[in-house]
Amino acid sequence: MPSVHVGFGELNAPPDSPPAVACYCATFLKPEMWHIYRQITAVERVSPVVIAQKRENSGRFPFDKIDIVPKPALHFLRRFWFRQLRDKPWQISGSELRALLDVLENTGVRLLHIYFGHIAVHLLPLIRAWKNPSIVSFHGADVMVDMNKSAYREATRQMLDAVKLVLVRSESLRHAVVDLGCDEKKIEVQRTGIPLDEFPFRERNFPSSDGGGEWRLVQAGRLIEKKGLPVTLRAFASFLKRYPNATLTIAGEGPLLGHLQELARELKIDNRVSFTGFISQKQLRDLYYASHIFLHPSETGPDGNQEGIPNSMLEAMASGLPVFATEHGGIPEAIEHGISGVLVPERDEKELAWALFNAVEDRHFLSRVARSGAEVVGENFDLRMQARRLEDIYLKTMLSAQC
Fold this sequence. Notes:
Layout: E1 4-6, E2 20-24, E3 27-28, H1 34-42, E4 47-52, E5 54-55, E6 66-68, H2 75-85, H3 94-106, E7 111-115, H4 117-122, H5 124-129, E8 134-138, H6 150-162, E9 165-168, H7 171-179, E10 187-189, E11 216-220, H8 229-242, E12 247-251, H9 257-266, E13 273-277, H10 281-289, E14 293-296, H11 311-319, E15 323-326, E16 342-344, H12 349-360, H13 363-380, H14 383-402
Parallel strand pairs: 2-4, 2-7, 3-5, 4-6, 7-8, 8-9, 9-10, 11-12, 11-14, 12-13, 14-15, 15-16
Antiparallel strand pairs: 1-6
C-alpha cells in the first residue's frame, strides 16, 4: 500500500540539518486541534514530519512535510472483526505496517511521536517493529478510551511497555497513566503551549455591580459532557435573576448542542444565550476581549473522562479574563483558588452562581485574579518555552537510543 507523499523535498538531509522527527496524527487536523498544530510547528531544533491517515482543514493548518498513509480498503472489516467479534482493539495490518516502515525509512526520521494514547495502541506492531524510539502523548480523553474492557487495558499496558517515553499534559494525567500500568520513570509532563503574542493581556473594564450591569460571560470548547455546560447554563440562569442584562456566549460545536439549546429554552434564558458554533482563532480572541468572565466548570464524564488543562481556559487567562472553573483534572495545576482564578466543586451550579455573585461585587478582585492568571500562563504555559522543552525531550531520547 503506497503512501501519498506531499511536498517533502529532499529525502537525504545534509549532515548539519536538524534531526527529523515523525509526528503521527490519525487525522491532520480536526478543527479543535490547534494545540497539536502549535506544538508541531513551534519546534526549531528538530525537523517535524507529519504522518497521517487523512488530511483535513489544510487551509487552517498549512504544513508541507506530510505523508498520507490511507486506511486500506478492508479497514472497516478489520476493525469490525477486532472490536465486535473479538472484543479487542484493532491494530494495523501487515500492509499498513510495511507502508509506515517505508515512510519512516525514506524520510530519515530518528524518533516517532504518536499523538493520543488510544491511537498508539493501534500502532503497537509499528512501535515494536521499528528500530528507533517511539514516544506517545496523552491529552485527556484518550486515557480512558475503552478502559472498562480488560483486553483494551492489556493492549494499552503493552503499548506503554513498548514505547520509550510517555508525555502527559498535567500531573493528574500522570497519575491516570500510572494507574494504567505505566512505569512512572517513563512519564514526562509536557504542558500545552499558548502563543502569548496571539492572546496578549488586556485589562477589562468591568460593569457596575448594580442590577443594570451588562455582564458578558463566555465559555469556549467542544460541546461534550466533561465541559460541564449544563452547569454553566443553570448558574447563568441564577445570575440573570440579579443581572437581567447579562449575556452568555458559548463558542464551539459538538454532540450536545441540541440538548443545550433545549435546556436554555427550559430555563427561559435562550434570549440571553448565544451558541456561535465553531469560530476562528481571530473570532475567539475578539470574543474574549469583548467579555468579562470566562466559565469552564469541567466535570468527570460517565466513562471517567477528565480534562488535562483546557486550552481555551489558558487562552482566556492569557488574554486577561478572570476564570471560574472547577476542582477537576489538571485545572488546579493552573488555577489557585482566589489567587489566579476561582474554583468550585464539580456539578455544583449553586456554588458557581454564588461565586459569580460574590466576585462581581468586587471589581478589584476580578482585576487581581485576571492579572495573576495571565502571569501563571506566561510563566508555565508559554508556547516558546514548552517547545524548547519538547525539543530537549526529543534530542535526549534520540541521544540515549544511540548509546
